[in-house]
Design brief:
By secondary structure, the protein is of the alpha/beta class. It folds into 2 domains: about 5-180 and about 225-245, Rossmann fold (3-Layer(aba) Sandwich), CATH 3.40.50; about 185-220 and about 250-290 and about 305-325, UDP-galactose 4-epimerase, domain 1 (Alpha-Beta Complex), CATH 3.90.25. About 40% of the residues lie in helices and about 15% in strands. The protein is built from 11 helices and 13 strands. It has helices at about 10-25, 40-45, 60-70, 85-90, 90-115, 150-170, 190-205, 225-235, 255-265, 295-300, 305-325, and strands spanning about 5, 25-30, 50-55, 75, 120-125, 175-180, 180, 210, 220, 220-225, 240-245, 250, 275. The strands form 4 sheets. It has a 7-stranded parallel sheet with strand order 3-2-1-4-5-6-11, with helices on both faces. Strands 7-10 form a two-stranded parallel ribbon. It is globular and about 65 Å long. The structure holds guanosine-5'-diphosphate. The site of guanosine-5'-diphosphate has 18 residues, from α4 and α7.
Length: about 325
């Protein structure tokens, strides 16, 4: 039975990946941070077969302990301070967790496994935020990185450190450059979920308006359930590598509003949407669109859900959740 350790198990991707690995017969361990973390209950409810370990990406010895207990064949480093807007407010914390946390995990694997370090396959959750002020369209593994937020800068550090451990120690270390990926499990601070929840609340008469930031930004949005499959495929390759994972299609926040309100049967959203400066960012990424040819060719990976399917899934889920009442739970 293969064994896997996932950091960031309480997040959207951690839950989908844990479900995927359990379905493939893995023994799955998940790292949970902090004392009495309220999200531990969410993990136990959603993926009961996962063994929860406590540890923190900023605490190297806790990572060593987690490796000694789980003895993993594969480590998926999904843990991060991951909300871009927040990363300006807490830039040092973002750097400690999202950047130095990657180095801590790589070091922990190197020290734990010694000369066997290449036997522990490592996945780093890199991000399209690394492209920032995109120097080329669409963006591929060869596009120059130009991050535009403390979060993006931290992810660039983790990306290059992963490549460096591959080149320095021969580790089977892969970096997945994942474009925005969403689902009904996405946190409500991200724009897709903010919109799906807001539209559902407006439709049900629970709220009148949705207060938004920049409506002109464009993103390449895919379904998180598809993207965790790409992570797993990367670690089944003979050697580690870097892969863009994206749909290759880009839509604006306006398109998102059009689609989400239409799913709820509201044709004109203009009376329901306001804009406020507090949701604009100090530096914006105007357009992201990924070229996932390498993932298609080498990994045999393809997305199964398009933008309209994704937004429909999210709005319908939130309509049901809000109609069922506040205790229906985030799953
Ligand atoms: P990101 O791409 O990782 O920053 O993901 P987000 O979902 O947080 O933001 C995607 C885009 O939506 C960014 O260009 C934001 O500026 C834009 N956006 C516009 N209004 C909002 C808003 O109210 N909340 C968030 N989170 N993003 C917004």
């Amino acid at each position: 039975m293969p064994r896997a350790l996932i950091t960031g198990i309480t997040g959207q991707d951690g839950l989908y990946l844990a479900e995927l690995l359990v379905s493939k017969g893995y023994e799955v361990y998940g790292l949970i941070r902090g004392q009495n973390n309220p999200k531990a209950e969410l993990v136990a409810r959603t993926v009961p077969d996962v063994t929860v370990l406590t540890g923190d990406l900023t605490d190297l010895s806790s990572l060593l302990r987690a490796l000694q207990v789980s003895r993993p064949d594969e480590v998926y480093n999904l843990g991060a301070v991951s909300f871009v807007a927040y990363s300006w407010e807490q830039a040092t914390l973002t750097t400690e967790v999202t950047a130095k946390g990657v180095l801590n995990m790589l070091e922990a694997i190197r020290v734990y496994a010694g000369s066997d370090a290449p036997a522990v396959r490592f996945y780093q959750a890199s991000s399209s935020e690394m492209f920032g002020k995109a120097q080329q369209t669409p963006q591929s593994e060869r596009t120059l990185l130009w991050p535009r937020s403390p979060y993006g800068v931290a992810k660039v550090f983790g990306h290059y450190m992963t490549i460096n451990y591959r080149e320095s120690y021969g580790m089977h270390a892969s970096s997945g450059i994942l474009f925005n990926h969403e689902s009904p499990r996405r946190g409500p601070e991200f724009v897709t979920r903010k919109v799906s929840l807001g539209v559902a609340a407006i439709k049900l008469g629970l709220q009148d308006t949705l207060v938004m930031g920049n409506l002109d930004a464009r993103r390449d949005w895919g379904f998180a359930g598809d993207y965790v499959d790409a992570m797993w495929r990367m670690l089944q390759q003979p050697t580690g590598g870097d892969f863009v994972v994206a749909t290759g299609e880009t839509y604006s926040i306006r398109d998102l509003l059009d689609t989400a309100f239409a799913v709820a049967g509201i044709d004109d959203w203009t009376p329901h949407v306001e804009q406020d400066q507090r949701f604009f960012r100090p530096a914006e990424i105007d357009v992201l669109v990924g070229d996932a040819s390498r993932a298609h060719e080498v990994l045999g990976w393809k997305p199964t859900i398009d933008f309209t399917g994704l937004v429909t899934m999210m709005v319908e889920s939130d309509l049901k959740r809000l109609a069922d009442g506040p205790d229906s739970g985030l799953r």
